[in-house]
Amino acid sequence: MMKQVIITVLMMLGAQLVNAQQDNPFGEVPDHTPMMNDTWETINKLMYKVTHKDNETIYTPHFPEALKAIDKKIVTLPGYLVPMHGGRDHETFMLSVLPIMQCMFCGQNDIPPMVEIFMKKGKKVRFTEEPIKIKGRVYLNGNTLEGNSEIQLLDAELIN
Question: ∠ CA 118-130-96 to the nearest 5 degrees?
Fold first, then answer.
């Protein structure tokens, strides 16, 4: 009888733990402001050509005409700072339509669009979980073997 009571109590505690983790596995996740705009929609059109060579899958960026149309143009993007390095102030970082605390790989559809930001020389952005707005020149990077993102904003500045 005692074994049954202990097993029942353990099962109840386990069920509560699983439910708590399913409800909020990362603690309090703040609501986020939708950041999608026409420029983000265009950036989201990035595609990849997939080839295979020597048992290796190779992904080559493909830029549709709509995306080529904004290459080298100055754009303004709202978004959330995603650091690439530790520290409070960032000269280079990723900008995302979703906050860093929200799982980038969850939900429906694909990974949300992100852009690599290179601030103007001497300019930095302090890390924040709040949305920011960045203005810079679009650069479509077809050679990602150098380790950089396919879509970048160069000479970027923070817009208040």
Answer: 45
